[in-house]
Amino acid sequence: MKNNRESYLNSKRDAWVEINLNAIEHNVCAFKRYLKHDSKLLAVVKADAYGAGACMIANTLLASGVSMLGVASIDEGMQLREAKIDAPILILGACPTWAFEFAAKNNIMISIFTKEHLEALKMVYIKSQIRPKVHVKIDTGMNRIGVSSDNSIEFLNEVIKADYLDLVLKMKKKLKNK
Question: I want to staple 49 with a disulfide (CB 3.0 to 4.6 A). Which of 6, 54, 61, 178 is the partner?
Fold first, then answer.
């Protein structure tokens, strides 16, 4: 990637960015020291890794010990797959139901939060015999996307009963008294 001073001097822009891949690797290793040994780490590379180059950053993150990548859309997930990145990928945002089969066939996990998602995913399974990998997205107060916290237990139970799905993420949060 040519984000250096020479590129800057030859450009017509008055700003540039330099990405230090060694610093990214160091930061991942430093962060992992605070995690339990068997913890998995998801790194977000949406929006082309915020303009830094998703494929390059993703490869550095994975080589540094990141287990999974987060993207905003099916297009971003496919960009990583086309670059031969085979790590688990999770679409953090809303994925349109028309893309569910495509995601399942390319081993890209989707975030689900509606009964319509469950119905569409059942059709994907019937058609392809692939159990889509899913994460349940719960709206914890930002009012963006996700099943409401009031309905989350009921929805999660429906997902657990859906034998045509592969529920991937199991989250737990422990509060420490200080």
Answer: 54
